[in-house]
Design a protein that fits this description.
The protein is mainly β. The protein has helices at 109-119, 167-181, 244-251, and strands at residues 3-9, 18-20, 22-26, 29-30, 36-39, 58-64, 67-74, 82-84, 92-97, 100-106, 127-130, 162-166, 194-197, 208-213, 216-225, 261-268, 274-276, 281-286. α2 (167-181) links the parallel β12 (162-166) and β13 (194-197). It is globular and about 50 Å long.
Length: 290
C-alpha cells in the first residue's frame, strides 16, 4: 500500500521547503503554508521564475498554539538573518498571485531592506506581505464537474491548496533525464507538500480521485502544471542548462508544449485533522477514464 514518505510546507512563497513529521490540515491546506510572500512595488508576487535567489532563503516560524509569533529568514547570500514579529492585522495593500487580486499585510521596511541584499538591487519597493487574519478570500478553482468545497481556499500558493507527488513518478522522470543529461534531480525541485512511497507504477497518483491520509479525506482535482522553477537548484538558486521541464514537455504535455504536468493538486475535504509521515494513503475512488 502507498504511504506518506515526506511532508513539506513553505512558510514564504517561493522560498525553501521545511520538512515535517506531522502537520495539521486547515482551510488553506497545511497549516502555515505560504502565509507570506514577497511582492514588487506594484503588488505582483515575486517567485523563483524571475528571482531564483529566493531558493536560498530559509524561513523558520515560531508559534504559540496556532498563532505565528516570529518569522526568521536567513540566506547564504547575506551575513545577517532577518527576524520579525509578523503582523496579520491592520492596514493592508493590494497584492496579486497570477490573476487573483487579494490583500496582504505589509511587514515593513526592515524586511524590504533585507530582501535588497538577496536580490542585489537598490529598490526598497519590493515588500514582504502576510495573509491577513480578516477580509481575505481566495477560492480554489475546481473543475465544473467537481463538487464545491466551501471551506477551502488558497493562501499565497499558485494554484492548489496541496501538491502530491509519488517517488515512483520521479524515478521515471529521472531515468529519462539521466539518459539525456547524465544527471538526476531531487524531489525538492517540484516543491510538493506530500511525497508518496509504495506506488506500483509511475503516475499512479494521476488516477486517484478521492484518497484518505490518516483520518483526513482529500479530493484530487487536477494535474499540476509545471514551470521553469523545476530547473532551479533549491539549495544554491542556480539554474540548470537543461532542466526536467524540457523532458516533461516531451511526454507529459497533453494540452500543448507549455503545459507539462507532474503531480496532483489536492483539496482537503475536512479541516482540523493531522497527517503524518508513515500514514497509509487509502484510495477511496478513482477518476473515470474516457
Amino acid at each position: 500500500m502507498a504511504s506518506v514518505a515526506e511532508l513539506y510546507y513553505y512558510p514564504v512563497k517561493s522560498c525553501r521547503a521545511v520538512s515535517l513529521n506531522e502537520v495539521t490540515v486547515d482551510s488553506f491546506g497545511f497549516e502555515n503554508d505560504r502565509r507570506f510572500m514577497f511582492v514588487r512595488g506594484n503588488g505582483r508576487f515575486l517567485s523563483q521564475r524571475q528571482e531564483p535567489r529566493l531558493a536560498t532563503i530559509k524561513a523558520t516560524i515560531t508559534t504559540t498554539g496556532r498563532r505565528i509569533d516570529r518569522l526568521r529568514l536567513e540566506s547564504s547570500l547575506v551575513e545577517n538573518a532577518l527576524e520579525i514579529r509578523p503582523r496579520f492585522d491592520g492596514e493592508t495593500i493590494d497584492v496579486s498571485v497570477w490573476e487573483d487580486r487579494v490583500r496582504g499585510v505589509d511587514q515593513g521596511v526592515e524586511a524590504a531592506e533585507w530582501l535588497r541584499g538577496i536580490l542585489r538591487t537598490d529598490s526598497v519597493h519590493n515588500r514582504l506581505v502576510a495573509v491577513p487574519d480578516k477580509d481575505y478570500r481566495r477560492d480554489v478553482e475546481l473543475p465544473k464537474s467537481f463538487p464545491s468545497v466551501p471551506h477551502s481556499q488558497l493562501s499565497f500558493t499558485d494554484a492548489g491548496p496541496l501538491l502530491l507527488l509519488s517517488e515512483k513518478s520521479l524515478e521515471d522522470l529521472n531515468r529519462r533525464l539521466e539518459e539525456r543529461t547524465g544527471e538526476t534531480v531531487p524531489m525538492s525541485r517540484f516543491r510538493p507538500n506530500i511525497v508518496v512511497a509504495g506506488c506500483d507504477e509511475p503516475y499512479e497518483e494521476d488516477t486517484w480521485l478521492l484518497i484518505q491520509i490518516g483520518a483526513v479525506p482529500f479530493m484530487s482535482y487536477r494535474k499540476a502544471t509545471r514551470c521553469k522553477m523545476t530547473g532551479v537548484d533549491q539549495e544554491s538558486g542556480e539554474v540548470d542548462k537543461i532542466g526536467p521541464l524540457e523532458i516533461l514537455r516531451e511526454y507529459r504535455a497533453p494540452r500543448g508544449p507549455g503545459k507539462a504536468e507532474f503531480g496532483q493538486l489536492l483539496v482537503p475535504l475536512t479541516t482540523g485533522g493531522t497527517v503524518s509521515v508513515g500514514d497509509p494513503v487509502k484510495v477511496l475512488d478513482r477518476k473515470k477514464t474516457t
